[in-house]
């Protein structure tokens, strides 16, 4: 195994969760930035990270990192990077995405073509050829420039990691799988405690919670770009990572996770998704209006993503719904509530100030996670 620096983008605000996930896999954190974590790993780390990181958007190999304020510097410094370590002679490589913040270089198309030219220049010299057929495996690159510091990364995931493979069907406003996993892990919930999502829609929060409770790797049901990079990661390492994940999965553990929704059509999707994820037998999904929420036990958790009124005409009904939520939740004895919404004045309509509030930004959405803490259950003697 050799030293490989990996970098993973995540939703802004969940860096602490992702950092813990990476450390739990046994890797050393090198840098934590807003929406991005860089860490030290090896070839097996690429497989494990893809399979296990619940809150990472993708796993990338950091090929290089340098300052550049001119296209000439970008060209020269890209050419100096050891591309031959990563890209074989038949590899197809291109800059898939450029993001530039507060930097002199910002034109994506120019940055894309200069980086490609510099790579071709170096690889031509190394391989002693003038032309690359590029008919082999794919090597998509992602480039991030922040305050003139350029990071060039190879995307080892391909499709974003929130695409676990189980959610083929979604309701109108589904929460992303990574955000659902982040909400759950930002709370102190564990499988000993009850979890209810009264607005479960396509089931994302209960499904993610069940996978956490069973210690099920979220990425077992999909493929990764880096599986084709056989000169970097021998196929036996992928098999090893999958075997490890299957070995530690706990299929016998008992827990109480439920999802309710008033829309039976949406619940059908949730059931289908839960089945795809392999957790349909361990979660309870039921048609129920949030106003009917009741539970005989104390100290449970509501983790949920209620409607937030996308359209202007929905806003009023959402305000009324938030008020009714508080009335309904007051039937639960000493529970904790973790409610995510992008509706700005949530606390005002819900009628209670959150104990803690956390901003979470995704590319498209700015939301707040409102946290209301119940007591912990007394320790068993
Ligand atoms: C933002 S969506 C939840 C999306 C879900 N987290 C997912 O990943 O698909 C809100 C859900 O609340 C449901 N809903 C709205 N009013 C409700 C009520 N009074 N009781 C129960 N469910 C309700 C809607 O049917 C919708 O599925």
TrEMBL record:
Keywords: Methyltransferase, RNA-binding, Transferase. Transmembrane segments: none annotated. Residues 45-156 form the THUMP domain. It holds the Pfam family RlmL_1st. One of its GO terms (molecular function) is RNA binding. SMART domains: THUMP (SM00981). This is Class I SAM-dependent RNA methyltransferase. It comes from Vallitalea pronyensis.
């Amino acid at each position: 195994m050799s030293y490989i620096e990996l970098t993973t983008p995540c939703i802004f605000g969940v860096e602490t969760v992702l950092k813990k996930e990476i450390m739990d896999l046994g890797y050393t954190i090198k840098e934590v930035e807003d929406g991005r974590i860089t860490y030290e790993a090896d070839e097996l780390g690429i497989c494990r990270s893809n399979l296990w990181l619940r809150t990472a958007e993708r796993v990338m190999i950091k090929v290089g990192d340098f300052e550049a304020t001119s296209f000439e510097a970008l060209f020269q410094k890209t050419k100096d990077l050891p591309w031959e370590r990563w890209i074989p002679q038949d590899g197809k490589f291109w800059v898939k995405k450029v993001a530039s913040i507060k930097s002199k270089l910002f034109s994506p198309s120019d940055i894309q073509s200069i980086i490609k030219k510099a790579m071709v220049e170096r690889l031509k010299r190394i391989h002693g050829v003038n032309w690359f057929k590029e008919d082999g495996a794919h090597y998509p690159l992602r480039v991030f420039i922040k305050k003139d510091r350029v990071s060039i990364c190879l995307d080892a995931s391909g499709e974003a990691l929130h695409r676990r493979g189980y959610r083929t069907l979604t309701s109108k406003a589904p929460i992303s799988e990574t955000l659902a996993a982040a909400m759950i892990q930002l709370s102190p919930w564990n499988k000993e405690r009850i979890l209810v999502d009264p607005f479960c829609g396509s089931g994302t929060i209960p499904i993610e919670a069940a996978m956490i409770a069973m210690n099920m790797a979220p990425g077992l049901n999909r493929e990764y770009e880096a599986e084709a990079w056989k000169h970097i990661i021998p196929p036996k390492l992928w098999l090893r990572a999958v075997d490890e994940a299957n070995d530690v999965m706990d299929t016998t553990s008992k827990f109480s996770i439920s999802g309710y929704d008033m829309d039976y059509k949406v619940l059908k999707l949730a059931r289908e998704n839960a089945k795809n994820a392999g957790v349909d037998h361990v979660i309870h999904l039921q048609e129920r209006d949030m106003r009917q929420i009741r539970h005989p036990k104390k100290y449970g958790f509501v983790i949920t993503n209620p409607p937030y009124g996308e359209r202007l005409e929905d806003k009023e009904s959402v305000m009324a719904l938030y008020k009714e939520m508080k009335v309904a939740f007051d039937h639960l004895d000493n529970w904790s509530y973790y409610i995510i919404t992008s509706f700005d004045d949530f606390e005002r309509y819900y009628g209670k100030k959150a104990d803690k509030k956390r901003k979470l930004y995704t590319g498209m959405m700015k939301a707040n996670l409102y946290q209301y803490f119940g007591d912990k259950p007394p320790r068993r003697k």
